[in-house]
Write a structure and sequence with these properties.
Radius of gyration of chain B: 23 Å
Number of strands of chain A: 0
Shape of chain B: globular
Oligomer: heterodimer
CATH class of the largest domain in chain A: Mainly Alpha
Order of helices and strands of chain B: EEEHEEEHHHEHEHEEHHEEEEEEEEE
CATH architecture of the largest domain in chain A: Orthogonal Bundle
Largest sheet of chain A: none
CATH superfamily of the largest domain in chain A: MetI-like
Distance between the termini of chain B: 35 Å
Structural class of chain A: mainly alpha
CATH topology of the largest domain in chain B: Rossmann fold
Largest interface: A-B, 22 and 33 residues
Distance between the termini of chain A: 26 Å
Number of domains of chain B: 2
Number of helices of chain A: 14
Radius of gyration of chain A: 23 Å
CATH topology of the largest domain in chain A: MetI-like fold
Shape of chain A: globular
Number of strands of chain B: 19
Strand order of the largest sheet of chain B: 6-7-8-3-9-10
CATH class of the largest domain in chain B: Alpha Beta
CATH architecture of the largest domain in chain B: 3-Layer(aba) Sandwich
Number of domains of chain A: 2
Order of helices and strands of chain A: HHHHHHHHHHHHHH
Number of helices of chain B: 8
Chain lengths: 279, 332
């Protein structure tokens, strides 16, 4: 094994495979970014060309800034995504802790029930959800979106986190109990830091679909004040004419915050604070 | 005074009866070791004493208080775990201080207790380090320090040496014995290692299948076991058991410690040497007797026996133990 790892051919092959995958994955993003800086004509004539002096244009970004309240959409998306992630992680981790730590009647059933949501897409219930939101007066509020996304993200979060929490040493939790820590302190101070990589995984898995979702914002919160970025960008896509400059610019701008959030979470993914806690 | 009193402790997990009617009284300052094969319930019993598990029935008294329904932190105990269980996000000082802070001790008291423990365990140079930056032995010392600073009525050790290598285990064992002398505190220590049990204990509690087999001082258990299980569990190499009838002894089984067997030309056991272990100070012979049993013979000093050699073994009937068919000791 050790010998194979030092074989230069293998190393080249591995890097080639990784590079190929990176190029494929980044290609659409790069095309969007490039074309968002070009004139409409240049976009259609040579979609892959770099913007030069002649084809360079900020017209797309200007349209985006003028049309609609783009910063408000931005803010809405951000609030919805961050709040949903916060609640998914908080409640998911709490439920996972209870399921993995305490012996009680119906523990198994409860775990299965909570995991059931992984298999049933929440969109099936859209009509019922809409009725519920209408009756509770939550239509056209960000709260409606946050509630729905939290419900959507919880099953997977509970499933993944309870698996990880089972691996946290019992001795460590018991040491905390003997030292007089409350169950909440044990959860927040001992267990959560140790499952941070799993939390980051859950966060990344949930963040992208929430940020990109068009369905629920369109149905539950289509009002001007509560439009999310994805929904807001749709104004540039018409039935007959699409303002491609504006669409591409809006998409380019929409990538940034997700990128920032991803960088934050992925650092947690890598960080290994657990070493040395228990042998 | 009594440090700990267990009264008819039972623990049942679903269908499994783990602890069966355990009674035990520990005097103040005593070092008690629970020993037994894995799955005998010794760790569960320790966790019941700590309050980490509730007993299904029975009562636990620590000092003068009935603590059966008291949470672990209020029982006046401290526990050292096999896996150290140090808080990874706190440095050594923080690890030792946490329990005291939770109990609301004054800062000066905490600092003084930590200084004392650090000096006792030579941890003073490491107070600002995180557990990840310490070696296994140092981590276990921190775990012990965390127990000391709480000045508990009762120390609980759950196989604290199992994760250490042989040399460190010996050194830490001596350190725990010294701590016990210095602090004069009552300690309960769980292990499956009979050497630890023999060397540390004032009294040993031998457990099997959730029952107490025998309680007593190490030498008392060694010299005067109540039954075949205790006789076989304590002592290394372990006692030889032979059918009694062919040797003309009473009972069903005759037990002879390896050191009580000797090479004797006219001895009653004839056999062939199948293996020789030379340890320098001792020489252990594995001998297969003509009737098919394998017995261990422990000879002091160095001897020149070879595999394949035929020899006869003799023993002093006064130092052999007789057991009945159920494994109970037949005395006198």
């Amino acid at each position: 094994m050790a010998k194979a790892r030092h074989n230069p051919l293998n190393s080249v092959a591995a890097h080639a495979a990784l590079l190929t995958w990176t190029v494929i994955a980044l290609f659409p993003v790069v095309v969007i970014l490039l074309n968002s800086f070009k004139t409409r004509k240049a976009i259609f004539k040579e979609p892959l060309a770099l913007p030069d002096a002649e084809s360079f244009s900020m017209i797309g970004y200007q349209t985006v800034m003028k049309q609609g309240d783009f910063f408000l959409y931005f803010q809405n998306s951000f609030i919805v995504t961050v709040a949903s992630l916060f609640f998914i992680l908080l409640f998911g981790a709490m439920a996972a802790f209870a399921l993995s730590e305490y012996r009680f009647k119906g523990n198994m059933l409860m775990g299965l029930y909570l995991a059931l949501g992984i298999m049933i897409p929440i969109r099936i219930g859209t009509v019922a959800i809409l009725e519920l939101m209408v009756q509770s007066g939550l239509v056209n509020t960000l709260t409606a979106l946050i509630l729905v996304y939290t419900a959507q993200g919880l099953p997977l979060a509970v499933f993944i986190l309870s698996e990880f929490m089972r691996q946290v040493s019992d001795d460590l939790k018991n040491a905390g109990r003997i030292d007089g820590m409350s169950e909440y302190a044990i959860f927040f101070k001992l267990v959560l830091p140790l499952v941070r990589p799993a939390m980051a995984t859950v966060a990344v898995f949930n963040m992208i679909p929430i940020w990109n979702d068009l369905w629920f914002p369109l149905i539950l919160a289509p009002g001007e004040a509560t439009k999310t970025l994805t929904l807001g960008s749709q104004v540039f896509i018409g039935q007959f004419v699409t303002d491609w400059n504006a669409v591409l610019s809006a998409l380019s701008l929409a990538i940034l915050p997700v990128l920032v959030l991803y960088v934050i979470f992925s650092r947690q993914l890598i960080r290994g604070i657990t070493s040395g806690a228990v042998k | 005074m009594t440090a700990l009193q267990l009264d008819k402790i039972n623990k049942i997990f679903g269908q499994v009866h783990v602890l069966k009617d355990i009674d035990l009284e520990v005097s103040e300052g005593e070092f008690i070791v629970f020993v037994g094969p894995s799955g005998c319930g010794k760790s569960t019993l320790l966790r019941v004493i700590a309050g980490l598990e509730d007993a299904t029935s029975g009562s636990v008294r620590i000092g003068a208080r009935d603590v059966t329904a008291t949470p672990p932190a209020k029982r006046g105990i401290a526990m050292v775990f096999q896996s150290y269980a140090l808080y990874p996000h706190l440095d050594v000082e923080g690890n030792m201080a946490l329990g005291l802070k939770q109990a609301g001790e004054a800062k000066a008291v905490i600092a003084e207790r930590i200084a004392m423990a650090a000096q006792m365990l030579s941890l003073a140079d490491y107070l600002k380090r995180r557990p990840a930056e310490l070696s296994g032995g140092q981590r276990q010392r921190v775990a012990i320090g965390r127990a000391i600073v709480r000045k508990p009525e009762l120390f609980l050790f759950d196989e604290p040496l199992s994760n250490l290598d042989a040399a460190l285990r010996m050194a830490t064992r001596v350190e725990i014995a010294r701590l016990h002398r210095d602090l004069g505190a009552s300690m309960i220590y769980v292990t499956h290692d009979q050497t630890e049990a023999m060397t540390l204990a004032d009294r040993i509690v031998v457990l099997r299948d959730g029952r107490v087999e025998q309680v007593g001082a190490p030498m008392k258990l060694y010299n005067d076991p109540d039954n075949q299980f205790v006789a076989g569990f304590l002592g290394a190499p372990s006692m030889n058991f032979l059918p009694a009838a062919p040797l003309g002894a009473k009972g069903a089984t005759l037990g002879i410690r390896p050191e009580h067997l000797a090479v004797a030309p006219d001895g009653p056991l004839k056999g062939t040497v199948t293996h020789v272990e030379r340890l320098g100070g001792d020489t252990n012979l594995l001998v297969t007797t003509d009737s098919g049993q394998t017995v261990t013979v422990r000879l002091f000093g160095q001897h020149d026996h070879r595999v394949g050699e035929a020899l006869s073994l003799g023993y002093d009937p006064a130092r052999a133990y007789a057991f009945d068919a159920e494994g109970r000791r037949l005395r006198g």
